[in-house]
Amino acid sequence: MQRLARMKRELQMLQNNPSLPGIACWPKSIDHLEAQIAGRSESPYEGGVFKLKIDIPERYPFEPPQVTFVTPIYHPNIDSAGRICLNILKLPPNGGWKPCLNISTILTSIQVLMAEPNPDDPLMADIANEFKYSNEEFNQKAKLWTEKHAIKNNLFRSSVQEKPTPLTEKPSEDAVMPEKAEPVNSNKRSLPLKEADQEISKMSKTPKSS
Fold first, then answer.
1. How many helices (H) does the chain have, and how many strands (E)?
2. Annotated catalytic sites, by residue?
3. Number of domains making up the chain
């Protein structure tokens, strides 16, 4: 019940929140969200758009969401399975998650982590060492990965930083796609915010079976 009430409030907040630069997020269902983060300028991820999935646990907000990268990224704090080493995604005493934090905070923190890796707390030790001791080589590899996975195959223009998609809106299916982009699978549609909000209301009123 706590999770349903919290998600309803968060969806309403997201709907009324002004856009966050380079960040987009929308619901697939009540407990599954999708997001995209644009790489910041002057970072090796510049021009790339990285897709993430967000799973809301049953005990949310007392447990943090599970956030993973779908788009491959060359980064010391993100492994090959898309798992992220970020303090606020962990429960105390080893982590910094608090129930007052929210999805917007998480996505903003991940965007900062992308631009400012933490090699002293890595998931990928070899990449962390490369970042610390051979930074030019790290930047070259990160740029190549970005070009291969986050630019050629993304559904947004690489200029998403210039015209960020509002946090609460799913990217338009008729948006101009970059050259060489993969075709959009129009059979997969996300659940609109209004419908998700209505579904949460229905579930919160449905008595649990014994």
1. 5, 4
2. 85
3. 1
